[in-house]
Specification:
Blueprint lengths: L31 H7 L4 H9 L11 E9 L3 H12 L4 E4 L16 E5 H9 L11 E3 L1 E6 L9 E6 H4 L5 E5 H14 L3 E4 L4 E6 L4 E5 L4 E9 L6 H5 L4 E17 L6 E7 L2 E8 L3 E9 H8 L3 H11 L7 E4 L3 E10 L3 E2 L2 E3 L5 E2 L7 H21 L7 H30 L3 H16 L1 H12 L7 H4 L20
Helix pairs in contact: 3-6, 3-10, 10-11
The chain binds flavin-adenine dinucleotide.
Length: 485
């Protein structure tokens, strides 16, 4: 049976005003119980019911309605679609890129160091089990500072997760593996529809719904849109939300390497004047590498043949992994930061890089994106239960209030760290060395910093704490057939 046919009705209804959120739609029935019993099935629902399958082919020049439209099917968008559908919302996720047919080993060369909270959230929605065997735990983080006078006698600071005592800091997973796991779960969810490749051409935020037109003429309407459409976010632009963007004249090269010495589940971050170079464990004697250089230098390294590239890398990694024997495909990314002025507007919530982007140092980017998604899930399920319109500005403001302090703090901290690593200004270098040596000697401070790095500023979302959120509707059993059209 399809998800909406098995819809449940929550018992106790609280007034939205308990949350400080006024009822938004005057035409809303007195209780959500009534509202949901009376609610006509959406076009997506009808189509799926008539076909007795979860997959829905969206016809051109027709209009389809769902609860939540996710624009962007990168890792943040897929995570948003899975989490919201897993909670019973009717979700459509539109992405301009085609879904990859196979588990491409190096789709974009990146891996993501996911902190424990993000791993808990992905476990809760049935995604993490597929990533486990292809990811490596991050037990120890080591910083080797070789800037300024430290070039020949670098200062090493070690952060051991055993000092915090809650298992590893997190796990390093290839983005390709994470994407496949998210897409597999999305296909399982009868109330989720992945529409790709399909490009959004126009989005309008109207009083009672959001209306999106795809380039091929299909129209989707929803109570809420989630903008997970990356740094250039068309959703953000259409809502008139400004974003501050800045760059550092750096390029990040991302790839994986095989090596002769075991990494011991230790991630090593070299702080060098041109930018950080980070080695992050993968299963076996393999590591993923993010090597940041000034733009021109990076272009020259990217053009080297494999042997020369490995020699250049070996010269910069102090033999910590022994001999480097093989390098995977290399990808490069401009390094920059982005901070949206607002994270939500009427019928739009931003998640992932449409709201914030940071240099690849300190493994914050997608972890922030997962915190966005799980916070939004909590806000939306609360609003739904209390009879509120999930796309209303007042609901979304509470999402923004919860996310903004954390995001601003992390963007500022990572920006400052990246600049401090790059600086050639001796007083700043000296201050950084002093800070690192103090940290190394003063364990309580180091432990506090490690804890701080792992949890968001403010309240940690329930899913990231390992607590369940009650779904808004009961889910249909997975059918195993595809929901991708
Ligand atoms: C080298 C490197 C290493 C990193 N390492 C880490 C790490 O260790 N830990 C960590 O937490 N983070 C890390 N990050 C950050 C992390 O990779 C990003 O935060 C994450 O990939 C961003 O995902 P996203 O889904 O927000 O954006 P994107 O991946 O940019 O996805 C946006 C999606 O929107 C779609 N889209 C755009 N416009 C349209 C349209 N008009 N219609 C339809 N679809 C559209 C695009 O097709 C795309 O699929 C790293 C980043 C880099 C560059």
């Amino acid at each position: 049976m399809a998800a909406w046919a098995a819809e449940t009705v929550d018992g106790a209804m609280a007034e939205c005003s308990n949350l400080g959120i006024p009822r938004v739609r005057a035409d809303r029935p007195h209780t959500m119980a009534k509202a949901r019993r009376r609610r006509k099935p959406s076009t997506l629902e009808k189509a799926a019911l008539s076909r007795h399958c979860p997959g829905v082919m969206l016809m051109r020049n027709t209009e389809h309605h769902c609860d939540i439209l996710v624009v962007g099917g990168g890792v943040a968008g897929l995570a948003a679609a899975v989490v919201m559908a897993d909670l019973g919302f009717e979700v459509a996720c539109v992405d301009a890129m085609p879904p990859e047919p196979t588990k491409a080993p190096a789709l974009d060369g990146r891996t993501t160091a996911l902190l424990q909270g993000a791993v808990r959230a992905l476990s809760a929605c049935g995604v993490w089990a597929d990533c486990e065997t292809e990811s490596a735990p991050l037990n120890v983080m080591r910083i080797i500072d070789e800037n300024g006078r430290r070039a020949n006698a670098p200062l090493t600071t070690v952060f051991d997760s055993a000092d915090v005592g809650e298992g590893p800091f997190g796990f390093n997973v290839p983005n390709a593996v994470l994407r496949q796991a998210l897409m597999r779960r999305l296909r399982e969810l009868a109330n989720a529809h992945h529409i790709a490749p399909a490009k959004l051409s126009e989005i309008r935020y109207e009083s009672t719904s959001v209306r999106a037109t795809l380039e091929d003429g299909r129209v989707l309407t929803a109570a809420l849109s989630i903008g997970a459409d990356g740094k250039g976010s068309p959703c953000r632009e259409a809502a008139g939300i400004r974003a501050r963007r800045w760059t550092y004249g750096q390029t990040a090269m991302a790839f994986s390497v095989a090596h002769t010495r075991p990494h011991g589940n230790t991630s090593t971050e070299f702080h060098r004047p041109n930018g950080p170079l980070v080695l992050v464990p993968l299963p076996g004697n393999r590591s993923s590498v993010v090597w940041v250089e000034r733009e021109r230098g990076a272009a020259a390294f990217m053009n080297l043949d494999e042997d020369a590239f490995l020699r250049a890398l070996a010269a910069r990694t102090r033999n910590v992994l022994g001999d480097l024997t093989k390098v995977g495909p290399r990808f490069s990314y401009p390094v920059g930061s982005l901070l949206a002025d607002r994270y939500a507007a009427h019928r739009l919530a931003l998640v992932g890089e449409s709201a914030h982007a940071l240099p690849p140092i300190g493994a914050q980017g997608l972890n922030l994106g997962i915190t966005d998604v799980t916070t939004l899930a909590e806000v939306l399920t609360d609003a739904w239960r209390q009879g509120c319109d999930i796309g209303a500005e007042e609901v979304l403001r509470s999402y923004e209030r919860r996310r903004r302090p954390d995001v601003v703090a992390r963007v500022i901290a990572v920006d400052a760290l990246n600049r401090a690593v790059m600086t050639r200004f001796p007083p700043v270098q000296a201050a950084r060395h002093l800070g690192l040596s103090l940290l190394d000697r003063f364990t309580p401070l180091k432990t506090a910093l490690m804890r701080q790095g792992m949890v968001p500023v403010g309240e940690m979302p329930k899913m990231m704490r390992g607590e369940a959120i009650r779904p808004v509707r009961r889910l249909a059993q997975p059918s195993g057939t595809t929901g991708i059209s």
